[in-house]
Amino acid sequence: MNYRLLSIILMTIIIVASVFPQAPAYTIGMSQCNLGEPWRVQMNADIKKAAEAHPEIRMVFKDAQNDNLRQSAHIDEFVRSGVNLIIVSPKEAAPMTKPISDAYRKGIPVIVLDRRVVGNDYTCFIGADNKKIGKAAGKWIAKLLGGKGKIVELKGLMTSTPGQDRNSGFREGIKGSSCEILFDADMKWLEPNARKEMESALSRFTQIDLVYAHNDPGAHGAYLAAKAAGREHTIKFVGIDGLPQEGQMYVKQGILSASFEYPTGGREAIETALQILNGKKVSREITLPSKVFTKENIDKGGEALPE
Ligand code: FRU
User: Which atom of ligand 1 is found nearest the CA of 161?
Assistant: First the structure.
């Protein structure tokens, strides 16, 4: 074969390969409970970025818009279309247990991210320890307030496990101090709800020392309500999530006294998915570490939570 012919054949192969790139070997369905909050947008972005480094996987994202029925339907669709693995960040524990269990029992590996379901019908759970975060927040707040103070607790959706754990952990954390929770309400993770609940708290109580909100949107909503009432300088605000563009920024601006990091687990979900798809055994529980950001430590990148 002469050199000219060989180079034509090689060029043809290269052109054909670039026009018809190799099809991904695996499809992963990702069911997100909603995309209305920056933290969830960040989770999807983290997943997308990690997945892009692996041409053998194709991601299909679905947004349940905070609706359990829609999220169940998405899981069923993933099963019917034959995805190789499902990643799901469920809205609420009880309603999402059955569809996730059904998919798992049909042999599809399922990674549950951030919010838990009931029982054990999934391959792996990935998330930070919300009880530990709540407890660390309680201890940190009790110290900040010098051991006594009047607190408003704005809770995340109490039918989702992070809300339950951030609540019980916090109460454990302030135990033994003279901190008192004078008002609590379920703001369902949403800033506008938090603002409304805080307006009621402000109208009922002339002294509020601190707001502990289960997420940074909640803490910010409470701050806006206090600001509108001219009381933002007499109240301290603490939240959870610690995104650079949200909680960390509020700490830098002096709006929040602290934000506790709640990592999205997006990168870890893709790493774990690849291990499962490659036939490796993974642990059933992957606990992500957390940090606290305060104005003292933010420039050094925050501080790990004490054990
Ligand atoms: C977003 C969010 C976060 C929170 C997480 C808990 O929907 O509310 O702010 O940390 O969910 O699942």
Answer: 12
Categorize the per-residue pLDDT at 237 as very low, low, confident or very high, splitting at 50, 70 and 90.
Answer: very high
Range of the domain at 30: 11-128+264-289
* Residue 135: CATH number of its domain: 3.40.50.2300
**Ligand 1: nearest atom to the Cα of 163:** 6
Mean pLDDT across the stretch 259-263?
98
- Residue 299 within any structural domain of the chain: yes
Q: Tell me, using a 6 A CB cutoff, whether residue 115 lines ligand 1.
A: yes
191 lines ligand 1 (CB under 6 A): no
- Number of structural domains, the chain? 2
First to last CA, the chain: 70
Same domain for 106 and 137, yes or no, is: no
pLDDT tens per residue, range 39-50: 999 999 999 999
- Given a cut of 90, whether residue 17 has pLDDT beyond it is no
CA of 133 to the centre of ligand 1 (A): 13
User: CA-to-CA distance for 41 and 30, rounded, in angstroms?
Assistant: 13
**C-beta of 92 in contact with ligand 1 (< 6 A):** no
Residue 19: what pLDDT?
64
Q: How far is CA 261 from CA 116, 243, 298, in A?
A: 18, 7, 12
113 lies in the same domain as 147: no
The model's pTM is: 0.92
**Inter-residue contact 63 to 32 (CB < 8 Å):** yes
Same domain, 138 and 241: yes
- Of the pLDDT bands very low, low, confident and very high (cuts 50, 70, 90), residue 22 is low
Give the residue carrying structure tokens 């709800």.
193
